Automatic annotation (TrEMBL):
Residues 17-186 form the NB-ARC domain. This is Disease resistance protein RPM1. GO terms for molecular function: ADP binding; ATP binding. It comes from the Eukaryota. Coiled coil: none annotated. It comes from Salvia splendens.
Amino acid sequence: MKQAPQVRETNVVGFDDEAKKLKEYLYAECAELDVITIVGMPGLGKTTLAGKIFRDPEIQYEFPTRIWVYVSQEFKKKDIFLSILKEFTGLTDDIKTKSDKKLADMVLSYLDTGKFLLVMDDVWSCEDWDKLHIALPKGNPRGKVMITSRQQELGWHVKRRRGPHMLRFLTLEESILLLQLEVFQEPKFPPELEAEGSLIAERCDGLPLAIVVIGGILVMKSTWQDVSKSFDTYLKDAGKRMENIILLSYEKLPYHLRECFLYFGMFPEDYEISAWKLTRLWIAEGLIQQKNVSLEETAENYLEELINRNLVRAVKLKFNGKVKTCWIHDMLRDFCLTEAGSNREGFLQEIKMSKAEGFQPSVSSETELKFRRLCIHSNILDFVSRKPYGPSVRSFVCFPRDESIMPLGDISHIPGGFKLLRVLDVEPIKFTKLPSDMYHLLHLRYLVLSVSLKFLPPAFTKLWNIQTLVVRTDSQTLEMKTDILSMTQLRHFKTNASATRGPSHLSPALQMSLTGLSLLLSLSVIAMSLTGLSLTGLSHPSPAQLEAFGRSWEAISAPGRQ
């Protein structure tokens, strides 16, 4: 079952009466599908309240089928329908290629008779709801849909008799309590901080997000007086109070965390971010300082520090307690984009497209993109077809939720237009062949590709700077024709296929040893056919330390660890 964003239950303040009322709506018998809308301004806690109800044990018992989907401003119907369907069935290639209408019909058939709770988080408009509700069974009285939105009119549009549930601001007492719990994990301030704490809570105007972000700064006692004195400067513009609180929190970050935080602007709104992906991107970007532990451990510590400062939220944890996925509030993401674009000399830029204005900023072979990092999350094939040109671009990432096949005529436009790339993550684009000039990107440290290939070409060895290599293929096997030994910077290799040893064009010594790969930390494949392979010389050769799947290790012997 898909998880809603995690919240610390003891720090959810002021929502008990709200949750009780909404649960009554969920328990009520209806003649048809019931839709409940939670409406409030950004930062008021709509997602937090919905998540509290979604995870309530009584609700879990009442609704064994519970589904949570993020909608956001730039959604596609297909993405939402697939998110719902994956709770009922595997998403085969046949399902992924169906039309929106057929996917809507499939969703309708699964939800038509059963009892379910569907949360649609962050619906932006009545028009968006009209596009989505065609997949919902209006005649199923056992179904409940809960929507969060900023738009009051949406609540009346969806349920005219009842209207929206308007989320209120916190009272002063609730604001003080939330700040106490965020900073001290108990409902009181130390006596010497009581006056300042109450004043700071009052100036947050009952907005939970503002209190939580401020709480992330105040965890360090030494910052209390400094923050209290700064409030008058930062909060003099009442219309931009939340934005200025985020700015204050950002400026209190240590310098080594600032660019790591801004990097969250690279990901789409309401995107559940893989911590593995994020930390490897940070490393490839040169944002992680070498310390006494590995770069990976340092990056994980940076992420945990941002979470502890309430700028990022952990969504899912691994069995060992480390962060598996994380999420950033859209107001914080907006700050990252604004700060990174206008105030950081082109740190990153999100490419957007509108029907009226086309791509912003403008994209063509004659227009230079003067940013160090580019992200684009929709209309990616159209973007590439325009031959984008960015001689200063170091990173190009895209995270559209649907997969597209790159036309053969356009496959060289990315390496041709961005010749100094360090990071290239284009997983949603499927390459039926790889352009020869891809191997001219000698600065690449991080590469994620989706291919229709059955082998890793020998030319991959030219990419000697690669630290992280992820290859997704629709083939069941991936033959390793490349001399992986020459990729001495390689730290992580992942593929979803069964990796097989290439033919004997390599010398027996090279076939039998990975001695040159002293930096390899993780090997993640479904299965490997590398019988007799030795891991002599690896800095971390134990199976427990390598992220291998399936039967990867049955055919591999690590010297000294028989």
